[in-house]
Structures are given as C-alpha cells and as structure tokens.
C-alpha cells in the first residue's frame, strides 16, 4: 500500500509541475484534468473515498470544462476589440 | 513591479520560508502513525450514537454540522458572485429566453459522442442521486452526489449541444433549487431550538443502522446540500456557457 | 518515506506559488491556484492516514480503528467549495477582459478614475 502511495505522490509532483509550466491556458485545462485524476486516485489510496469522489468529478471534469468555457469566451470578447 | 523583481522576491521569500516549512513538516506526526482522539472517538462511537455507517457523513452533517453550514454559505456566496458578475454585466433580458438561441450553430459533433452521451448522461444522473441518498451508509453524500448530477447535466451539453442543454436547464428552477437547499439546512438546524435543544441537534428518530432513513437529520441535510450543490454548479455552468454566445447585432 | 507526503504537499504549494508569480495570464494563475489548494488536501489527508487501517466507513464490517474522518470531512467539503470559488475568480477574469481588454497582469495598471 505504501508503495502505491509513494508512486502516486511522485506522479502528482510531476503532474502539478505540468499544470504550472503549461503556459498556454487551453492546454493547462487538460493538464488540470490529468492532475485532478491523479489526486483522486491518491485520495483513494489515502483511504478517503469521499474526498476521492469529489476530486475526480471536480478536478477531472468540472474545473477543466469551466476553464475551457471561460477561455472560449475570452477568445470571442478578444475578437470584438 | 517588473517580472525580474517579482521572481527575485519570490525566490528570496522561498529561501527564507523553506527552512521554516521543513521545520514545520518535521514536527508533524509520522506518516501513518497519527492518532487524533477526536477522530478515534468518532470511529469508535459514531455508529452506536448516530446509527450511520459513513463516519465522514456523521462528522460533516451532525457532529460538525455547523462547519458544513459555513461551507454551504461560502458556496452560495460564490455562486451568487458569479451570477452577479456575469448576468449582471450581460443584462437579465438576454439570458431569459432560451428559445431565441435554439438555432445557434451546432458544432460538429461525432455521432459517437452524441450516442454515448445519451447512454452515459442518464446513468450518471441516477448514480449521482444514489450517491446523495446513500450518503450516510456508503462513501458519498450531498457534496459528491451534487457535483455528479451537475456533471450529468454537462454531459447533455457535450452530447446534444447548447440548445438541448438550455431546454433541460432553467435558471429559475436552479435558483429555487439552490435557495431551497440552503434554506432547508438552516430550518433543520432551527427546529431543535423550539424543543429546548441546541442548533443542529439531531432530534429526529435515528432509525435502523444500514437503512436509507437512518441517522436522523443526516439524510435530510445530505439532500439539502445536494440540492444546493446541483443548483450552484448548474448555475455556474449556465452562466459561463451563456457568456460564449456571440451577442446579436442589436443586442448592445 | 515517512516524510514524502508532507514534502509533496510543500512542493505543490511552492510550485503553484511559482506559477502565480511568473504568470502572464490570469486564467493560468487561477489554474496554479488550484494546485496550491490541492496542497492543503494532500497535507490534511496524509495527516489523517493510518497505515494498515481502512476507510472510516463501516457499512460492511463492525466499527473499529480507521483513518481520521474529521480531516476527510474537511477536505471533501473544501474540494467542492474551492471549485465554486475558482469559478468566481474566472468570472472576475472575464469581467477584466471585457472592461480592460487584457488579462495579462503586466498590462494592467491601477485604474486612475
């Protein structure tokens, strides 16, 4: 079990770095989705299924989607100027 | 402040704070060895005292129910802020009538996405409702189930496009859902005051361990939070998606 | 091994902060803020973890020692509420783009009027 947690923690360290270093916001939304899924799996390994539920749905689907929608709005308002 | 100055300030601050963070980390209990008397007491007595099998739900909605009330107000305030910022700037009138945007250009979706969406969205909806209703028994509850239901509504948008999404999601209904969720939580907390109890005290019959109506107020609060979360997240998604509409020529 | 989860929590915090400091786009900065939020989740859950014990859910076995439910309750509500707050920040960024025409922090000077 601890090996699993260690591996997931190391993956999380890499994916979070990916979220930060992805400067292009649209790609960052995808990176956030991957980061959210790794976080959800980690919470499952931490014996916290309740937190894993919310993290997988929020981090894996809802937040990336909100960012995508916000970015498409920014693009259309940018065009108007 | 220029970029270089900002970076230098960040690294200087990080250098100063790093030893403090490391010192703080060393003071934490060793990983996996932590014992919190409060959590241990909940684990040992929660089921006997509250007749629920999910101790996280017992903490959230009964033992520390007042904290969750605060969280729910944060959610409510954040959603209200989003609505005020987006709908307020856009004007109430343009978001009122979904029929005018029924002919919005449909983005090219593959039939596989539409077909899969038709299967997955209802399944996700049922699963989300299941998670809300069984929050006191198995992992889950109002917060998680609420976001799963909101995700199922978003799957409709993915599969069917904007017009279908606006047909199933009405902003008035969402406002009512969210306000009722918060109001039920408040009222359930107030009821024990009339019988001489304290706020959010669990005065309802506790029921049988393992049944869906066990736990007194816990299932009711779960449903209330679920309503607030569904309403909140669908409202946020609705307002953001409204923003992506190209304004009509005579709109401004 | 025993300090690795705490180190990762600190790493998430510092990396997210670095991203915000060097960000040229408020939307990117909000994404980095979610990384900082996740550092608190990792810290709280790794404090509450008990090696060799199960989740604090006793639907199929009698109650006994398990992971700390108090910390898990804190994290699970905060994940959902944190997402709503991120949405609020995103809508502020949208307003910024509409009012000032840019979401690059370097382009934005304090309003004079």
Automatic annotation (TrEMBL), chain A:
Residues 10-75 form the MrpA C-terminal/MbhD domain. It is a multi-pass membrane protein. Keywords: Cell membrane, Membrane, Transmembrane, Transmembrane helix. InterPro entries: MrpA_C/MbhD (IPR025383). Signal peptide: none annotated. The chain crosses the membrane at residues 28-46, 53-74. It comes from the Bacteria. Its main location: membrane. One of its GO terms (cellular component) is plasma membrane. It is found in: Cell membrane. This is MrpA C-terminal/MbhD domain-containing protein. It comes from Faunimonas pinastri.
Automatic annotation (TrEMBL), chain B:
GO terms for cellular component: plasma membrane. It comes from Faunimonas pinastri. It is a multi-pass membrane protein. InterPro entries: CPA3_antiporter_subunitB, MnhB. Its main location: membrane. Belongs to the CPA3 antiporters (TC 2.A.63) subunit B family. Coiled coil: none annotated. Keywords: Cell membrane, Membrane, Transmembrane, Transmembrane helix. This is Multisubunit sodium/proton antiporter, MrpB subunit.
From TrEMBL, chain C:
It is a multi-pass membrane protein. The chain crosses the membrane at residues 6-22, 29-49, 69-94. Keywords: Cell membrane, Membrane, Transmembrane, Transmembrane helix. It is found in: Cell membrane. The keyword Transmembrane applies. The keyword Aminoacyl-tRNA synthetase does not apply. GO terms for cellular component: plasma membrane. It comes from Faunimonas pinastri. Belongs to the CPA3 antiporters (TC 2.A.63) subunit C family. This is Multicomponent Na+:H+ antiporter subunit C.
């Amino acid at each position: 079990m601890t090996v699993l947690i260690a591996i997931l923690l190391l993956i999380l360290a890499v994916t979070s770095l990916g979220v930060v270093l992805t400067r292009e916001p649209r790609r960052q939304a995808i990176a956030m989705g991957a980061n959210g899924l790794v976080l959800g799996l980690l919470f499952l390994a931490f014996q916290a299924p309740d937190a894993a539920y919310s993290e997988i749905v929020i981090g894996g689907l809802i937040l990336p989607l909100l960012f995508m929608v916000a970015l498409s709005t920014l693009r259309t308002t940018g065009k108007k100027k | 402040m220029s970029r270089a100055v900002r970076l230098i300030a960040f690294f200087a601050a990080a250098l100063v704070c790093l030893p403090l963070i490391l010192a703080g980390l060393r003071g934490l209990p060793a990983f996996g060895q932590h014992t919190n008397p409060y959590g241990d007491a909940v684990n040992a007595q929660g089921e006997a005292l509250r007749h629920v099998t999910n101790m996280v739900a017992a903490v959230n909605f009964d033992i520390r129910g007042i904290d969750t009330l605060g969280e729910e107000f944060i959610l409510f305030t954040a959603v209200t802020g989003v609505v005020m910022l987006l709908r307020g700037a856009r004007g109430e009138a343009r978001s009122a009538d979904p029929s005018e945007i029924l002919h919005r250009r449909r983005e090219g979706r593959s039939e596989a996405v539409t077909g899969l969406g038709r299967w997955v969205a209802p399944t996700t909806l049922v699963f989300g409702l299941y998670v809300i209703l069984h929050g006191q028994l198995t992992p889950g509850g109002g917060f998680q189930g609420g976001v799963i239901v909101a995700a199922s509504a978003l799957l409709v948008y993915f599969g069917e496009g904007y017009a279908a999404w606006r047909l199933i999601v009405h902003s008035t209904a969402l406002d009512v859902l969210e306000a009722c969720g918060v109001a039920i939580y408040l009222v359930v907390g107030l009821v024990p005051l009339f019988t001489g109890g304290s706020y959010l005290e669990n005065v309802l019959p506790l029921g049988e361990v393992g049944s869906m109506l066990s736990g007194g107020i816990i299932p009711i609060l779960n449903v209330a939070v679920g309503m607030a979360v569904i309403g909140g997240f669908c409202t946020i998604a609705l307002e953001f998606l409204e923003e992506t509409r190209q304004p009509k020529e005579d709109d401004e | 091994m025993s300090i690795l989860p705490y180190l990762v929590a600190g790493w998430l915090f510092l990396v997210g902060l670095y991203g915000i400091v060097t960000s040229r786009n408020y939307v990117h900065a909000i994404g980095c803020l979610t990384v900082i939020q996740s550092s608190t989740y990792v810290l709280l859950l790794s404090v509450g973890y008990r090696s060799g014990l199960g989740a604090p859910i006793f639907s199929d076995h009698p109650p006994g020692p398990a992971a700390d439910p108090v910390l898990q309750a804190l994290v699970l509500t905060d994940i959902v509420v944190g997402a709503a707050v991120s949405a609020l920040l995103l809508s502020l960024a949208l307003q910024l783009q509409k009012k000032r025409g840019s979401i690059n922090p370097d382009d934005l000077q304090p309003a004079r009027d």
